Amino acid sequence: MVDNTTFIQGGGRGLGLAFVDCLLAADTDNRVIASTRDPHASPGLHRLRETYGRDRLQLVALDIGDENSVRTTRQQTADLTDRLDLMISCAGLLHDDHGLWPEKQLADIDADNLARSFAVNATGPLLMIKHFHDLLSHGERAVIASLSARVGSISDNRLGGWYAYRAAKAAQNQFTRTAAIELRRKSRALICVGLHPGTVDTGLSEPFQRRVPDKQLQSAEQAARHLLDVIGQLSPQDSGHLFDWAGSKIEP
User: Fold this and answer.
1) C-alpha–C-alpha distance, residues 184 and 223, integer Å
2) Which stretches are annotated as coiled coil (predicted)?
């Protein structure tokens, strides 16, 4: 298990909220800064704040699709702490109410949907690394993790389809790898990885859960605990790679 100060991007619901809950419950020394687009509209975070106190859970606004928002929140975070020990980016976009849906064939591809998918799934986590990495480059062990997906593995693609999501996650994995190489020069104790949570019972996977065997569908709390265990076991040699919830490396 990790400790000290953690930044959770997308901490208002689903797996992000479960991360916040697990970290605060694990150790009274753990402190969490959680971001959502609108912290006032995050009842789950406010309930946790009432339970654990404002000193241990601080809320900030951040829109991962807007670099100005990421930059501003980075400045606000520096007023709250001079270092982070863990940052997890939980951004993920597979479908929405504006026509984005996993493509089954080439005819389904839409350029605007591709751009939206890349903005959230690939560019967003990279912007988090760009603006926050110095808070984690303090020379002691620290981890930058972003939620990715096994479908972003090119070598593992056997079914086709899902063009936007697959390609955006593949790009995210490449960004993680490239950033890890650069960040190693700044702090050899800084670990930068992607994490595949498996199929989690959240809004992202809800339309596709009928095809998932019961034993393979994890609750958000289960997935958060598994991934935090994986994070706790990472070493600098693991930086730049993608791991699943059981700690197994996923080939690109």
Assistant:
1) 28
2) none
Domain containing residue 89: 5-250
CATH code (residue 59): 3.40.50.720
* 151, 200 Cβ separation under 8 angstroms: no
Q: Answer left, alpha or beta for residue 232, where phi above 0 means left and psi between -120 and 50 means alpha.
A: alpha
Which residues are paired to 57 by β-bridges?
A: 32
pTM over 0.85: yes
Name the domain count of the chain.
1
Question: Do the Cβ atoms of 132 and 84 come closer than 8 Å?
Answer: yes
Determine the Cα–Cα distance for residues 58 and 214; give it in Å rounded to an integer: 35
H helical segments located in 105-161: 111-118, 124-132
Greatest extent of the chain over all pairs of C-alpha atoms, in Å: 53
